[in-house]
Structure formats: structure tokens, C-alpha cells
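Sequence, please.
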């Protein structure tokens, strides 16, 4: 008697399952506005009120290029290295940041500068004296060009005690989110461990590789 189909053994079934698994594509990120698939490197919008990043495709991001009167703001892509950045130890102390790594951005709605420092639990906000920031901005005119909400100054002074030069960058705000996530993921123990600081060093090396130099800072 002929069979209507060939019998499937347990071994055949296992191989079929493996083939199906191998054919599955990894889940891709999608634009959170139109649901189109995104490449690994893609644009972001930010909801300033919620301090939340939104993944976006190029056409959707372009819709928010005008930074005014919208819920979302488009995050720019430029990275600027500030080799001539000026800040004294007294000025840094005046910023009330307890560690040597922090980022600062202008809050358009509140008209102030917010200061955050990353750690194993995420980013912590530090109270910031507007007078202290005004002094630093006076000596570093590039800070006046930062776009509110979407760009930030990152200060890396981690190696200053060992004679390593501090680094300062104006970056897209999503780079700050990336740094916070990197530290949370790799932090171990009380001091973070060698792995987290190795990853932080890679992060700043990547910034420098992609950055344009902003030299010749002078008082305005």
C-alpha cells in the first residue's frame, strides 16, 4: 500500500528544525515612526520631555530637522573635538561633579545646563551652578554653539591624576546614552574593574577618530 507522504523520522525533524532556525534572520531594529527596517547605524530623534531616544529612518528624521515646535528633535551627527578647551581645577570643582567623567547639555525648556555623570546604575544628575558654567562658556566659545537638548559636552578627565590629558568633545546626545549603557553593561565590583575602563577608552578613541577638530578657542 502506498503512503500519501514519506514518513518523517525524529532525526529528519531535528534537521528540519535546525534548517529553519538557520534561515531565521536576527531581529532588526525598525523606525519607531513608520516601522521600516533600519541599518545598524541609523538616525535618532529625542523626546526632550521624557529624555527618550527614538530610532528613526532618514525620511522620518528629516521631518524633524526643524528643531522648533515639535515633540521630537532630530539628533545631529557631527562630533567636535576641542583640543584647546580651557577649564581650571577650581572651575571643575564648581560644577559639583563627583567623578572625572560627565556630560553637560542645555535644556531648552528650562533655560539651564544639565550635568550628568554615568555609573553602574545609569546616569545621575548633578546640581549645576549657572555661574560656574557661564565662566567656562566665556573661555570656550564653542559651547555657545551647542544645540539645546540634542548636543552635549563630554568631559573625560579620568586619567588626569596620572598625567593623562583631559579630553573634551561636543557630541550628539545619543553618544552620551551610548556611554551610559556601555558603563552599565561592563561595570563590575566597586570600582568598575579593568574591563569597563578599557571599553571607555575605546569609546573615546572612536569619538576622536570620527571627530572634526575645533581649534583656536579664544575669549569672545
Amino acid at each position: 500500500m502506498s503512503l500519501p507522504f514519506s514518513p518523517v523520522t525524529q532525526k529528519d525533524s531535528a534537521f528540519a528544525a535546525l534548517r529553519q532556525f538557520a534561515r531565521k534572520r536576527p531581529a532588526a531594529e525598525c523606525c519607531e515612526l513608520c516601522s521600516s527596517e533600519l541599518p545598524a547605524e541609523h538616525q535618532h530623534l529625542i523626546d526632550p520631555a521624557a529624555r527618550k531616544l527614538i530610532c528613526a529612518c532618514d525620511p522620518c528624521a528629516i521631518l524633524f530637522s526643524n528643531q522648533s515646535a515639535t515633540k521630537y528633535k532630530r539628533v545631529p551627527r557631527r562630533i567636535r573635538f576641542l583640543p584647546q578647551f580651557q577649564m581650571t581645577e577650581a572651575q571643575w570643582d564648581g560644577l559639583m561633579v563627583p567623578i572625572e567623567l560627565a556630560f553637560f547639555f542645555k535644556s531648552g525648556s528650562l533655560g539651564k545646563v544639565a550635568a550628568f555623570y554615568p555609573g553602574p546604575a545609569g546616569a545621575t544628575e548633578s546640581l549645576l551652578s549657572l555661574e560656574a558654567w557661564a565662566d567656562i562658556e566665556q573661555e570656550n566659545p564653542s559651547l555657545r554653539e551647542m544645540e539645546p537638548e540634542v548636543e552635549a559636552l563630554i568631559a573625560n578627565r579620568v586619567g588626569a591624576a596620572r598625567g593623562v590629558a583631559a579630553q573634551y568633545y561636543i557630541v550628539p546626545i545619543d553618544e552620551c546614552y551610548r556611554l551610559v549603557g556601555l558603563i552599565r553593561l561592563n561595570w563590575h565590583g566597586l570600582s568598575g574593574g579593568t574591563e569597563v575602563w578599557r571599553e571607555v577608552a575605546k569609546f573615546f578613541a572612536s569619538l576622536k577618530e570620527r571627530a572634526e577638530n575645533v581649534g583656536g578657542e579664544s575669549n569672545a
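The beta strands are 43-47, 52-56, 73-74, 80-81, 101-107, 112-119, 122-126, 151-156, 167-172, 212-213.
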